[in-house]
Here is the input.
Amino acid sequence: MIEFLGNYIYAVFTYLSNIILNTNLYEKIILILPYLLFDFPLAAGMVVVLTLKVTFGLFERKRRDWTPPVSVLITAYNEGKTVKNSIESMLEQNYRGYIQVIVIVDGAKQNRETYEVARKYEGIHGNKEILVIPKWERGGRASSLNLGLNFVKGEITLALDGDTSYDRDMIKNAVSHFSDERLVALSGNLRIRNWNKTIVTKFQAIEYAISIYMAKQFLDALGLINNISGAFGIFKTDFLNGLGGWDAGTAEDLDLTLRFKKYRNLYPDIKLGFAHDAIGLTDGPETWAGILKQRRRWDGDLVYLYFKKHTWALNPKIVGWREALYTYYLVLIQNFALPVFILLYYIKLFLQFSLLEVLAIITFIYLIYALHTFFLILFFVALISERKNWDVKLIPYTFLFPIYALILRLNALYAYIDEAFFDAHRRTGYVPPWVARKTKF
Amino acid sequence: MEITKIIILQGAKKSEGLIFPKPEEALIEVNKMGLFRSPHLFFVEAKNRKFVDRAIEVLRREPESSLSPLFSNLEPSPEFKKLVDGVEASLSNESIEKAREIWETIEKLVPNPYATTLPENWRMNLLRFLVTRKIEEITPVLNRDSVIGFFWPEAKIILRKEEKGRELEDLELMKRQKIFSTEIENKTSLCPFCGYYNLILREICPNCGSVKIRLEEFIHHYSCGYIGPASEFQVGDKLICPKCHEELKHIGVDYDKPLEKYICDECKSVFIEPDISVLCANCSKTFPPENIKEETVNTYILTPFGKLVAAEGKFPLNIFEELSVQLGVIGFNLFIYILDKFLKLAKRYPERTFCVLGLKLIVKEEAITEAPTKVKLFLKDLVSIIKENLRSSDIISSSERRYILILLPETPPEGAKVVVKRIAEQVERLLKMNNLTDQIEFKERYICTDKGITDLSAEEVVKELLKEMEK
Here is the structure.
């Protein structure tokens, strides 16, 4: 064992010195091709754009100082007492306008505790009014949101989750983004509340910082926001009504986003955005089993939506070339092709090289990704983060992060196959079986 | 027996006969003519209800006409309904017949009732009015103008009370005399000092008693542990910890609100529960809610004994009531309140001495039944003795229906001793003279500031004095 370890370390060193000293550029590039193709351009673009944004105010949206009435839909299922956090964070909002909070308890019969907790807050609290709607039969999140939409009085509607709580200035900041008439929906910025609990939640905190906080800000600057977060969407009420609310079935957030895109065909001017300063905190799964199950559901839904329900989203004639190319790159390549490619890449490595050589190559690639994550989080803490005292503690974990990323990618591959061939979304448990069976697709 | 005169009280226009546009004029004129001595009736011919009400009030409150049959052409206000004998557009034969029947009942009563005081006379009028109209009970009516929130219209008018609700004392007295029995109708909360019902409940600071208190949420900042009122954290629309200057962004993550507390803007004290203080809208005195006087509001039902009293025209003798009325005592609670002020004053300025004098009076039952006149005369003399020996600034009250309490302000123990001695000697002489030594027990004691009573509460001082008198 010790001998093997010695051999491994020796091999890694030899290999690394070979790579650095070896003048064959082609070989170097081939080795880190996936990184150069996918991860590096995104990260580099992100760092450049965000640096310009933070230091020179470029790409910054003009803000509007207004206080329209706002309605907040909070969907709760079996959150139990945690729905309290969500409601209390609404009561703490420093927004000066009227806030109507509508809490919809799905399956209130079974989820009596959630319902009872929510009901204690019902009534008028200063400029906030809380209404609790029990939905006695369980119908899924889309049906809860649609029910709540009937009671909405606000000009802006927020669709929130009962297990997420929000910063005091969330509504104030979110509303200020609507300076542009064309902007119809915003995705809020979600962060991990229990980041300090386990290593899995720390990884999620790193993941959210990169792929939501920074990546979405970057995409927003380029006008390429493609998704409105399910736990955290901010909409113009008129537009939401124009769309006819949410569609029953699974993953209603992305579903709605895709329908927005179709809408854009009729109204080419409309835009989606990301509000980085509208911050919500959500509890991430604390175990490996938990995170894998959660992600299989999300990834499976992606296949379902693009390949089964909304195939038009990949058609440039409908969504336009810019949108289509972006979807191909981000959705098709990043999410579908890349996991397959990585798998094939490793198979090839094992066939071509000896075990020690393969291990040395993997170590090298691993180091590339670890450094990549390290620099991104360093950049994040230095320039972007609004909770620097939290995020600075994530830095040591960036060196382990590639393991998490790899596991999630392989898990995604499994989910795609499962969904593509076995219709997994019908048994996710995210919607009740009778709703899943009745949806058209 | 026939009705000899019909007196018409008319609202506006004048016409023939005994017609008076003002009820007061009618009374004077009718009295001058001596008409009250013969059977008569009043008919109020009014254009509006206000006039009917006024006529009823004027006629019923005057002892001469309080029993006279009275009819009107218009309905009076609901509370005056029982005070008229009938309502009809013009006087009919049936009404005259009814008036005749009333006169027959009046004739059956013993004439010229015996009464020692005017109020007693009015009380008799009330009883006789009830008996001649076959009214069995007097029911309370909710009324915001009444001092106790309710009043008994028939009693208020016939007993000539200026304020609504003041008739309660008389009704209660007659209840004690077994003339009325009662049935609880409602309840009211009264000021212990002035007996007024309009009380204002306020939350006050338990430390300084100020009403300038406000409820404030307290914020607990997790990372530095500081807990303080929300206002200390508020900077614009942000929450900044006053201790570590960190911004609080998220409830449940950065901070929580563990409790709500009251803050007094006057003395700056912080407390969880404020005290409740009651303010009387009438006498402006403040007191804790446990001192509110809870009283039942009753329907007074005439007893067979009450009917007998009305028929015979003679009240049973009630020694203590008689004495209290003649001495002009103040309420016990008010006495305690005043005594309390004197105690506080004497504690601060020891030179301001005062004394409290107690008199105990018990008259044996057989004395009242066997020689009521003798006892009455004794009481009259006793009142004169007490009054002669006191100054006009002395404050008299009574307790437990057997003690007279007298506060002698600015009086040294020697002064009180002289007063007590004089009263004792004079009363003893009076008892002997009337041969009442065996029938009436009389005792006198006093307590002064030199006995260190300034550390006691007013209630404790009185208790002490009563204990002395029972020895």
